[in-house]
Design brief:
The complex is a heterodimer of chains A (334) and B (528). By secondary structure, chain A is mostly helical. Helices cover 75% and strands 0% of the residues of chain A. The longest helix of chain A has 38 residues. In chain B, a hairpin with a 5-residue loop joins β4 and β5.
């Protein structure tokens, strides 16, 4: 097992190297020059030239890449051109917000998606099955920004039940330790902040969790249907096992692998920062940071953020793979 | 019984009067400001974007400031000043008893420090900033010296009449030298000024908080706190404002203006900003994009008559701008309102074209920037409207566009026959528009601010004279004359001045929009 994990980690090195090279080249091949974008209508040639020199943009590409890579290997992602702050620090400041929202969205998606999927499979071709699957189809197709605005309009403004955007009401104080507000509120025993942070998570959690929920529901249904038709299920029913035990213990456990795969993939995607959801809900996460960096042609920030996202994705994938072994004892890693 | 009744009525009258008194400014409360984005840095000398400047405005002040709502200046941290005979030396007498938020005394040392760090490469703080605006607006400042604790002398390398106006800019705000020394490269995260509010906290991309500075020299501000919340989407900002979870918002979505007008709880404030969006016709025979027809003033006037500016402003700017007839906006001093704009008249345009020898029009290319700018909403659509208007009088204009950075470079190099562009003023001085955008000094192929490559010696003389005289009345007269000359030569079709717009809940009082989008928060208060 340990050897497997080590080997997988070794494999990630060429992946991350490739990612770093592609990002590096793509941002530079895209039109636009950070100096020009920042100087705007005021561009004086001397200023732009001075800025290029200052940020090393006047050097040949391979030299720039070499310098950047050697810094990255030492754990330094460089300085953001727009804010002049260390990129790693900026990314780490925003990641907890994205992580917290992604976790909530995935919990929502997993609980409701799996429940709907199991029920649909058990009652295949029932009214519930049809409604759930049509619902899942709508869930996959609905644009997130529209869903987000509708949720805000209805729950935030008309019913006035939930906050519209942001992570905490202004005026509520919370000492941050991890950056995950729910956890921080628990750690500092701040009940008011916990309730408030939770309320702020509901709408973006639903908006962000809807697509994964729909995917999970569909995957659960088809995986369950496949397992339910197999012989060992028939045998178990014949043995007189209670239906509940047959479904939730034996069938579900055997159907879990593809479901966990979908959950892992979706979670990895969300951790990269959901650009639209974060923008709509004024969520100070990684997705918005990356997009702002792209608009500003802030090369170090784009490179750093994308590399960080790639690392997170690789880790989530690895954890998913390891989970397989626990779910299905027949899978053993060597 | 009657007496009791009278008494009750009397009490009501007194209470009623009390409500009238209640509209006197009230101390207390937290203002939540819905911001479209986050600040990049909080050092006033090292930011260039409006969102950061709004934040630093709450905390920092300069030697002079703009009078609320205008671009005229008034004494602020400097109580008075003198100019030497040759116009090269300014002596500022500083206000006494002013303190920075960290308790440091405001004095000549602080002023010298705040300026020198921007232009003296040997200054210990110089390495921590880009100082883009110094290079752009103050490169003619030769030196800044302390005369005594409350007197500062600033020497210029050439007389510059717009210097005083420029001294009201955000970038020459005075910073606490103690705090700079203490935080060094992190000063921009720990800003310390003399302004009415002091810094509390900044959670990136989420919010920034400032609180009332009790020892503010001008008296404690009305508000206890201001929280700047970042809400990037304009529709969501409006939802939050409607819900009452924020008190004001910047940059409303044009499509929402009707909805805002219908809501009795909301107030829209608007004012033409110090900006202009224009169509420039390339008159420079030495440029690669020059086309012969544009050398003829009749053709340029014809194009001015051909374009239906009103329709463009109404339908494409969607009520967020006013039509322009001069290069400078009406909110700027020196604006010449006597000028009569070329009216929309396609027949007159055709006649002028025929007179110039182009009865069947001609073919040309209209360059258009790919991005929306504050002075031009949806440029590609505006270009299409202009194209249709020109077609009407026989001019066939092909639309050409290229990525923004390249667009600026190539228009500066004069590769266009006609182009759309605009300008956002820095200091509110007409020189910052007319000289930068229309003087022959700035019509240099490759780095032109004057992308019409319009070169008029008479105008040049006037603009230079206006730069060198410190007599405000005379400067006004000169700029009025300059606008006449420009109008007659018609190097541009001035299109529009975009309005600044902010939406408030109606209990927010005392906020005045400034044409340069500066924010003065000390007069703002919240009604119960």
């Amino acid at each position: 097992m340990v050897r497997y994990v080590l080997r997988r980690l070794l494999f990630t090195i060429p992946v991350l190297f490739g990612v770093s090279l592609v990002v590096f080249l793509v941002v530079r091949l895209a039109p636009g020059d950070p100096a020009k974008v920042m100087a705007g209508e005021h561009a004086s040639l001397e200023f732009i030239e001075a800025m290029r020199v200052r940020w090393g943009l006047d050097r040949p590409l391979y030299v720039q890449y070499g310098i950047w890579l050697s810094r990255v290997l030492r754990g330094d992602l460089g300085l953001s051109i727009a804010t002049k702050a260390p990129v790693l620090q900026e990314v780490l400041e925003r990641f907890p917000a994205t992580l917290e929202l992604s976790l909530v969205a995935m919990v929502f998606a997993t609980v409701f998606g799996m429940a709907a999927g199991i029920l649909s499979a058990v009652r295949q071709y029932s009214l519930f099955d049809y409604l759930a699957m049509v619902g899942a189809l709508i869930g996959i197709s609905v644009p997130v920004f529209w869903l987000g605005l509708m949720l805000m309009l209805f729950f935030g403004l008309s019913l006035d039940l939930l906050p519209i955007s942001g992570r905490l009401d202004p005026g509520i104080t919370l000492r941050t330790i991890t950056g995950l507000y729910l956890l921080d509120a628990l750690l500092t025993r701040n009940g008011k902040a916990f309730v408030n942070a939770l309320a702020h998570l509901v709408l973006p959690g639903i908006a962000l969790g809807t697509i994964p929920m729909a995917l999970i529901a569909r995957m659960t249904r088809s995986a369950m249907l496949e397992v339910i038709r197999q012989d060992f299920i028939r045998t178990e029913r014949a043995k007189g096992l209670p239906e509940r035990l047959v479904i939730y213990r034996h069938a579900l456990q055997n159907a879990l692998i593809p479901i966990v795969t979908v959950i892992g993939m979706e979670f990895g995607l969300l951790l990269g920062g959901a650009i639209l959801t974060e923008t709509i809900f004024a969520w100070p996460g990684l997705g918005r940071y990356t997009v702002d960096a792209v608009y500003a042609r802030d090369y170090p920030a784009i490179q750093g953020a994308v590399l960080f996202i790639a690392c997170v994705f690789v880790v989530v994938n690895l954890v998913t793979d390891i989970l397989y072994a626990y779910i299905n004892p027949r899978i053993r890693y060597r | 019984m009657r007496k009791v009744l009278l008494l009750v009525v009397g009490v009501f009258l007194v209470l009623g009067a009390g409500f009238v008194w209640a509209s006197e400014p009230r101390y207390g409360g937290t203002l939540i400001y819905g911001s479209a984005g986050d600040a990049t840095r909080l050092d006033p000398a090292d930011v260039t974007d409006g969102i950061s400047i709004t934040r630093t405005d709450a905390m920092f002040e300069g030697l002079v400031r703009y009078k609320p709502g205008t671009t005229e200046i008034e004494p602020w941290l400097a109580e008075s000043w003198e100019v030497s005979e040759d116009g090269l030396t300014f002596t500022f007498h500083l206000r006494k008893g002013v303190k920075f938020h960290d308790g440091t005394d405001f004095n000549a040392d602080a002023v010298v420090y705040s300026f020198k760090r921007q232009f003296d490469p040997n200054h210990p703080f110089h390495q921590y900033g880009e100082w883009a605006y110094w290079q752009w607006m103050f490169s003619y400042v030769k030196d800044v010296e302390k005369v005594d604790d409350y007197t500062v002398r600033i020497t210029l390398s050439q007389p510059n009449a717009s210097f005083l106006t420029s001294m009201a800019m955000f970038t020459v705000a005075i910073v606490s030298p103690t705090a700079c020394e203490k935080y060094k490269g992190d000063f921009f995260k720990n800003p310390v000024g003399t302004g009415p509010f002091k810094f509390v906290e900044w959670v990136k991309d989420d919010h920034m908080t400032v609180e009332a500075f009790e020892d503010y020299w001008g008296g404690r501000p009305y508000l206890d706190r201001i929280i700047f919340r970042v809400i990037p989407d304009p529709s969501v900002r409006l939802l939050e404002l409607e819900k009452g979870s924020i008190h004001c918002m910047e940059y409303p979505n044009p499509d929402d203006l009707e909805r805002i007008a219908k809501n009795p709880d909301l107030v829209l404030l608007e004012l033409p900003g110090i900006n202009v969006g224009y169509l420039a016709m390339n008159m420079g025979e030495d440029t690669p994009g020059f086309q012969k027809p544009f050398g003829d003033v009749r053709v340029r006037r014809a194009i001015n008559h051909a374009i239906n500016k009103k329709a463009i402003v109404e339908h494409l700017y969607k009520g967020t701008a006013i039509p322009a007839k001069n290069p400078i906006p009406p909110t700027m001093w020196g604006y010449n309102d006597d000028i009569k704009d070329y009216e929309y008249d396609p027949e007159k345009a055709k006649a002028l074209l025929a007179e110039a020898g182009y009865p069947n029009g001609f073919e040309t290319t209209l360059w258009v920037m790919p991005v929306s700018r504050p002075y031009m909403f949806d440029p590609p659509k505006i270009a299409e409207a202009i194209q249709a208007d020109l077609e009407e009088v026989g001019i066939r204009a092909n639309i050409y566009t290229v990525e923004w950075g390249t667009y600026l470079q190539e228009t500066e190099a004069g590769k266009h026959p006609m182009c759309l562009l605009g300008w956002i003023g820095d200091n509110g001085d007409p020189d910052n528009f007319l000289y930068v955008l229309l003087d022959k000094d700035n019509a240099i192929v490759g780095s032109a601010g004057n992308v019409a490559f319009y070169r008029n010696d008479e105008l040049h003389e006037i603009l230079i004279k206006a730069q060198q005289t410190y007599d405000q009345k005379e400067r006004e007269a000169l700029y009025r004359k300059a606008q006449e000359i420009i109008h007659n030569d018609a190097p541009w079709v001035p299109l529009a001045h975009a309005k600044l717009q902010m939406v408030f809940r109606k209990n927010v009082k005392g906020f005045v929009l400034h044409p340069l989008d500066r924010k003065y928060f000390q007069s703002v208060w919240l009604e119960e």
